[in-house]
Specification:
Number of helices: 2
Shape: elongated
Distance between the termini: 141 Å
Strand content: 35-45%
Largest sheet: 6 strands, mixed
Amino acid sequence: MSRRVVRQSKFRHVFGQAAKADQAYEDIRVSKVTWDSSFCAVNPKFLAIITEAGGGGAFIVLPLVKTGRVDKNYPLVTGHTAPVLDIDWCPHNDNVIASASDDTTIMVWQIPDYTPVRNITEPIITLEGHSKRVGILSWHPTARNVLLSAGGDNVIIIWNVGTGEVLLSLDDMHPDVIHSVCWNSNGSLLATTCKDKTLRIIDPRKGQVVAERFAAHEGMRPMRAVFTRQGHIFTTGFTRMSQRELGLWDPNNFEEPVALQEMDTSNGVLLPFYDPDSSIVYLCGKGDSSIRYFEITDEPPFVHYLNTFSSKEPQRGMGFMPKRGLDVSKCEIARFYKLHERKCEPIIMTVPRKSDLFQDDLYPDTPGPEPALEADEWLSGQDAEPVLISLRDGYVPPKHRELRVTKRNILDVRPPSGPRRSQSASDASLSQHTLETLLQEIKALREQVQAQEQRITALENMLCELVDGTD
């Protein structure tokens, strides 16, 4: 009689636990927009949630420590004229967040460390280039100020936020709506999924599709894709019979999947959150009340089911904390921020360990807040892996992070008061144009003053002659 061998893994006993009631964020009106994004973004300093807003789009930004009931008059970030569809924190500056909207624009905001007294209405910059709604945002993992956006116009635009310029526009690659876009670890490639059921690997700087797979999942409902640490592609989608399934693919051989597993018959789109440090992928379905997690390894069957965290309430969205925001003293390897209809609840994933010492095997060096490249270096063809930091002593986010720039960077400048101005030309050419206009006006004023002086002198002479005549 053969005995089944249990697979050895340090993550086999990972368990999830909802935070205590006083650690949740209560009384938040979460957006009801029907869009398959996570509606929530989190970093070591702030929690941002897309909210209901009358006559426009808004999201709320709360310091992580501000738990409990949120005042109904708490200031929002408002500026979009239509609902906000996606938000994403800059990985290299914990005070900078981008928002994408149904109004076709992307706005980038500087969030102060103090609590503002009124709504934040002035973005640092507004990026205008899409002709339809913008539903996907993703910052470059290693290059400073590089932001990707994808819209309903089937176009992907890569921006230099520091100058407001379009670096790259990928407008001939997707014949239909783009469902997801993901960078690989050094930002040299993109994985995209589209309504045409095709999974594509794109080199954005060459503007080429380097590999593609039609019908990675045969169902018509949206697919999602993320890069793994090994360079494989992990996907979620639907079978022809509308069952949810997950897949693992090798971009060098798209003919056959590395792994393909059917899951259940729910109709919520599965959002994958991948942790490259542990190689665990967490699957959160919108409308589900559970989080499933799997470990991806080099051994068959390659995608190993670990466990499921279940709760009573369905989730409206989900935020995923970067590794540097976790509590290493409690062996916390992941933290989610689950959106309910009126609140946000942290869910903590922990590896049970008896020792109080730092667990090196759970916390390898992880990407820190320092970029590895400037935007122009990346555009010129350079690649660099993320700059790693150790979590041995924990991570303390800086109070205010100044951006180091090679030329004038508008992220370091306060926005002007008054009506919002679209940033369409580069700052250098704008300054040159303004200087020329001022010089012309000064010259015209000088000529006008000289003409007035001559006229006054002539009038004075005439007056003197009249006075002499009367005498």
